[in-house]
Write a structure and sequence with these properties.
Strand order of the largest sheet: 2-1-3-5-4
Largest sheet: 5 strands, antiparallel
Strand content: 5-15%
Number of helices: 11
CATH class of the largest domain: Alpha Beta
CATH topology of the largest domain: Structural Genomics Hypothetical 15.5 Kd Protein In mrcA-pckA Intergenic Region, Chain A
CATH architecture of the largest domain: Roll
Helix content: 40-55%
Number of domains: 2
Distance between the termini: 22 Å
Number of strands: 5
Structural class: alpha+beta
Length: 206
C-alpha cells in the first residue's frame, strides 16, 4: 500500500529531502529548516544505534517513499532487476528512473513525482503524441513526452515549476520548452547520491 501520511515526517526521519514537497512552498521551507532534526517529541536525542539490518530497511524505505511505491511494487521491480544478467543495482535504477511519472518529474514538468502521477492519471501527458494515463509506463530511449494541451502548460503550478532555476537535468534526458525526450537508458548516478542501492539489494536478497 502506498504511504499517504505526513510527508515532512518521512523526510525528517530519513534526514534528506525526498522530493515529496513542492520546492518553494511553505511546507518545503519548514522541512528544510528541520531536515536534520528527527520527528517526535525528543528530536535528535531520540536517535539510537541502528543495526546493519536496520540500515537496509531504512534505505529500502527511502527508495519506496522517493518514488511513491508500495512495498509490493518495489519488490516486483527488484525481481525484474535480479532476473536480468548483470548489475542488479543498475537495472533497478533503470526500471525506476524510466517510469513515466519519474521522467516528467526529472524534466521539471511537475514539482513532485506525486504531481506527475496526478498529471498522468488525469490524462494530461502524451508519449509520442499518444495520451497515456499509466504513471508506471516504462519509457524507451527515443520516446518524447509533453503535455496534451497548451491549457495545461499555462496552469500556475506548471508555470512555476518551469521557472525553477536549480533543476538538475540528467544527461539521459533532453528538454526544449515543455517537450522532453529520453535520450538513452537512465544511469544510476543521481540515485546513488541519495540511496545506498547496495543495502537495498541486500535487503531483498535475504
Amino acid at each position: 500500500m502506498r504511504y499517504t501520511g505526513p510527508k515532512n515526517r518521512i523526510a525528517r526521519r530519513e534526514g534528506i529531502d525526498l522530493g515529496l514537497k513542492t520546492p518553494g512552498s511553505k511546507s518545503h521551507t519548514r522541512l528544510m529548516k528541520k531536515i536534520a532534526v528527527p520527528p517526535g517529541q525528543h528530536g535528535i536525542n531520540k536517535r539510537k544505534k541502528v543495526s546493519e539490518r536496520g540500515h537496509q530497511i531504512r534505505e529500502t524505505q527511502k527508495l519506496r517513499f522517493m518514488f511513491g511505491l508500495s512495498a509490493k511494487q518495489l519488490k516486483n521491480y527488484f525481481a525484474k532487476a535480479v532476473a536480468t544478467k548483470g548489475n542488479t543495482a543498475l537495472f533497478l535504477s533503470i526500471l525506476l528512473e524510466s517510469r513515466l511519472d519519474n521522467v516528467i518529474y526529472r524534466l521539471g514538468l511537475a514539482p513532485t513525482r506525486a504531481a506527475a502521477r496526478q498529471f498522468i492519471s488525469h490524462g494530461h501527458i502524451s508519449v509520442d503524441g499518444k495520451r497515456l494515463n499509466v504513471p508506471s509506463y516504462q519509457l524507451k530511449p527515443g520516446q518524447v513526452v509533453t503535455f496534451v494541451s497548451e491549457k495545461m502548460q499555462k496552469t500556475p503550478v506548471v508555470q512555476k515549476t518551469l521557472e525553477t532555476k536549480d533543476l538538475i537535468m540528467p544527461q539521459w534526458l533532453e528538454k526544449q520548452a515543455t517537450v522532453g525526450k529520453l535520450l538513452e537508458k537512465p544511469s544510476e548516478s543521481i540515485l546513488k547520491e541519495q540511496i545506498d542501492l547496495r543495502l537495498v539489494i541486500e535487503y531483498f536478497s535475504r
